[in-house]
Amino acid sequence: MPHSQQPSIPNRLKDQVGKQPPVIKVDLTGKTICVLGANTGIGFQTCKHFATMNPGRIILACRSEAKGREAVQRLSTETGYTKGELWIIDLANFESVKRFATQFEQDGGRLDILICNAAIEPGKYVSTQDGWESTLQVNYISTSFAALLLLPTLLRTANDYRTVSRLVFVSSELHYDVIIEEDARANRGSILRTLSNEKYLKKASRMRQQYSVTKLLNVFFARALTAQLSPSAPVVVNAVAPGFTVSELRRDLAGAFGAMVKVLEKLLAISAEEASRRYIWAAVGPADTRGLYINRCEVKPASDFVIRGDGPKVQQDVWVETMTVLARLDPRINATAERYLSS
């Protein structure tokens, strides 16, 4: 068996506590940036960095109008940037995702960089009104839905302005620690439904690993979408790990596990600003990152499960199922697939 390329636990800890790479700066004059989950934490810090690069617009995509408006004001106050805009999207609601995409179509403007940052980690089973487990819907299904609905705008922008757009999915180092279990893989065509099933998630404390599984799925999707796009398509799709970060993401974790995570945060976590530097690198750094996994502002190997053995087959099965699920939600998915994707 080939030697594993994924980092050891000691090396991951060393990367976590070591000096973090600096933020890179480029000229974004005239460009439009959209960050999902932009009102707090890493998403907001990412907007602050972008604001120093003179973009034409920064769209702060948030679930809460009140918190979003506060974030737009903070961005202006803390950076002097006055072209921030609040757009509402709730990834726990497919209709909200569709309205968000329609708003882009009606706006008619450009979209150069999309950062899919929004995520949740409730630590317990919660069903959305759409009938999916909430972590899976927010972190993976709706994130992929939004990305595909906005893909035509990313491509149109690149063609109209003779540039290359960026689509950045936020993954995690935690994707190294999980796989798609064989009993979920056995339900080919229903892997996502299995991963959303409350009874399945109750077995072997799988709910505790659900966040990590969704981050694995984000890596799969970035790789699968890249494989479906023409190699010459003017959009770079990648997946970035922010590192273990002080964040409101884990605010709902309770009990002994929640207490342990809080202790680890104090000992090991980097700041949201430091983590946001990795997003910036994925969004404006080297263009030879198509379909790749990024950590600490450089390309890193994805997990052994992703790149070896059954991983590529599972990736394809999940891709097909994802496209089937999303196509049922909105006819624009099939239109995008027929025009821009290979199958």
TrEMBL record:
<dbReference type="Pfam" id="PF00106">
    <property type="entry name" value="adh_short"/>
</dbReference>
<dbReference type="GO" id="GO:0016491">
    <property type="term" value="F:oxidoreductase activity"/>
</dbReference>
<protein>
    <recommendedName>
        <fullName>NAD(P)-binding protein</fullName>
    </recommendedName>
</protein>
<dbReference type="InterPro" id="IPR002347">
    <property type="entry name" value="SDR_fam"/>
</dbReference>
<dbReference type="InterPro" id="IPR036291">
    <property type="entry name" value="NAD(P)-bd_dom_sf"/>
</dbReference>
<keyword id="KW-0560">Oxidoreductase</keyword>
